[in-house]
Description:
The chain is an alpha/beta fold. It has helices at residues 40-53, 67-71, 83-86, 95-104, 106-113, 129-143, 161-175, 186-189, 199-222, 231-238, 256-266, 292-305, 337-345, 347-362, and strands at 9-12, 22-25, 34-39, 59-64, 77-80, 118-124, 147-154, 180-185, 242-251, 279-286, 311-318, 326-335.
Amino acid sequence: MGFVPKPRRRSWRSNGSVGMSCSSSFAPMESAKIKVVGVGGGGNNAVNRMIGSGLQGVEFFAINTDSQALVQSAAQNPLQIGELLTRGLGTGGNPLLGEQAAEESKEAIAAALKGSDLVFITAGMGGGTGSGAAPIVAQIAKDAGYLTVGVVTYPFSFEGRKRSLQALEAIDKLQKNVDTLIVIPNDRLLDIADEQTSLSDAFLLADDVLRQGVQGISDIITIPGLVNVDFADVKAVMKDSGTAMLGVGVSSSKNRAEEAAEQATLAPLIGSSIESATGVVYNITGGKDITLQEVNRVSQVVTSLADPSANIIFGAVVDDRFHGEIHVTIIATGFSQSFQKMLLTDPKAAKLVDKVASMQEGKGLPLPLTTPTQSPVPSRSPTRKLFFS
């Protein structure tokens, strides 16, 4: 893939209090080639959000059947698919047309992705182009040997049952064609949003969570920082990993390191799942005022909650825009597809799992292996699966 030999590596230990090492790399290396592909309206919006936020070190692509939507894209590489099939008019919410459009334009998609090391595919599940075309784009990327990570949203309940069913079918297809799949259930964003949040702001919030999922991984690979991560280490955690969860925390208080870490591990998007993860990738970002001790304290919180056998890697990045703040992004991997489906279709059961796990953790009891209503909660199957929940 065009990389130099693996650089010298060191392990991170938190003052000897945590008997777990986190691998990271300190020697400079050739950058991995990362492409972020937004598919459909939701994916295109997410890419615009990433570009607007100043996401660095990646190449952006916008794929759509709707030619007018591509005119609004800020991506430097817009790609209209299914031109003969849809004549630039979109799919009308029909995933089959989205799939056929991607099949029609397979060669153009493959050419756009050529030379990648890591491909992020972002989309809103439930519509036509995103649901139908994203699995085809993923298949092309994975068949070419690129590390392929899907970062997608599951519709709000108020968007209707038809859209939810289309989303579930699309997620099932996408899962088969990615190394790692992070699914963000939009309903769980309601636990984060203020009661006065407008409808348009709710969708912007969903776009921003997609952005954080991509940036949490890409920054630790591409941005020189306090601790940089070898792409090979990221690949070791995320290759053929299936379902993953996302957690995000931000704090500017006196105890900002601990607070940001605790927010990320207890966030509504990640629940109590970090304890059952087989792999964890986390990113610590702060301004020039971030200290080594603060990086250490974040690591203590994360590693103390993770399973001792989990494969853990992390990076620490300095970004002047975050002076006075610490941002922590966690991607926890290694979950069963049945657990992910429960999180999407039965939020009450998912919250009950979180509550029971939190209570048992507080009492020092082992976490449950089954839920009251479903069979396995996160399991360590040979084929690991990752999602955002």
